[in-house]
Design a protein that fits this description.
Layout: E1 14-18, H1 23-34, E2 38-43, H2 46-58, E3 63-67, H3 73-87, E4 92-95, H4 121-149, E5 152-157, H5 183-202, E6 208-215, H6 224-233, H7 246-253, E7 264-267
Parallel strand pairs: 1-2, 1-4, 2-3, 4-5, 5-6, 6-7
Length: about 270
């Protein structure tokens, strides 16, 4: 019998992480690389993932960058081809690229135009293109080598707001225009779960698994008002630290979760338990 810790080792496996320039994408890329995987750090911001890959390489880890527009099928195919040319296979796809309006101190003032009644159709369509069509295109490109290998893992990043509606009271500020978490975020994140379950059942009986990871709110320089209000709603009484999804992503990507597909792993500090 193998040691339980061997199941978490990713040696010899190749992972593509989209949204790798983002808060969690950077964490996911580093975690999988530290576990032994060769990582393709992919993002629309090519300069940032080039820097990230260089940092990982300097730490003795294996990583290459890839600039990708997840709304463009030619770009997602090229991303997968980058993995195949560099490493000869693709074992894990982590879909972390998404539009997510930020309510940290640097971006909070921009979120006063998100009222449902006047939300622009163009903005709605753009968000669906990135948050849903992007996952569709990335998975469509990635499953081709996975089918040939009869092995692959797809991990789609969801949100608690794909499970429950946003508490808009969290975004209110006295004396300021009313702010909202926009409609597209809840709708697209709920769709992520539907796509995940579809992929899991579509590839039933094969070596391909698909699961979702649902993080709670991760602290990223949010103002004190938001942090206190959010923390009061979490059972653990705080927002997540940036590294607190890393164990979950490694579990889902590795052989530690081989009897798991079509599932949603919720790591939200108890937010949805009330």
């Amino acid at each position: 019998m193998s040691d339980i810790f061997d199941k978490f080792k990713m040696n010899g496996q190749v992972a593509v992480v989209t949204g790798a320039a983002g808060l969690l994408g950077r964490q996911f890329s580093r975690t999988l690389a530290q576990a032994g995987a060769a990582v393709v750090a992919a993002d629309l911001n090519g300069a940032v993932v080039e820097q990230l890959a260089a940092e990982l390489q300097a730490e003795g880890l294996t990583a290459v960058p890839a600039q990708v527009d997840v709304t463009d099928p030619r770009s997602t195919e090229a991303m997968v081809e980058t993995a195949l040319k560099a490493f000869g296979r693709l074992d894990v796809l982590v879909c972390s690229a998404a539009m997510d309006p930020k309510f940290d101190s640097a971006n909070q003032s921009r979120q006063s135009a998100n009222a449902f009644e006047t939300y622009p159709l163009e903005a709605w369509r753009q968000a669906l293109d990135v948050n849903l069509t992007g996952l569709f295109l990335c998975a469509q490109a990635a499953v081709k080598p996975m089918i040939a290998q009869d092995h692959g893992v797809i991990i789609n990043i969801c949100s608690t707001y794909g499970l429950v509606g946003p508490d808009q009271r969290l975004y209110e500020r006295p004396g300021q225009p009313k702010q909202y978490k926009p409609v597209f975020y809840s709708v697209t994140k709920a769709g992520v779960l539907g796509l995940t379950r579809y992929l899991a059942t579509y590839y039933a009986g094969t070596g391909i698994r698909a699961n979702a990871l649902t993080p709670g709110g991760v602290y990223n320089n949010h103002d004190e008002t938001f942090t206190k209000a959010y923390s009061a709603r979490a059972v653990l009484g705080r927002m997540a630290r940036q590294d607190e999804m890393n164990g979950a992503i490694l579990f889902l990507a590795s052989d530690a979760s081989t009897y798991m597909t079509g599932a949603n792993l919720v790591v939200d500090g108890g937010w949805t338990a009330w």
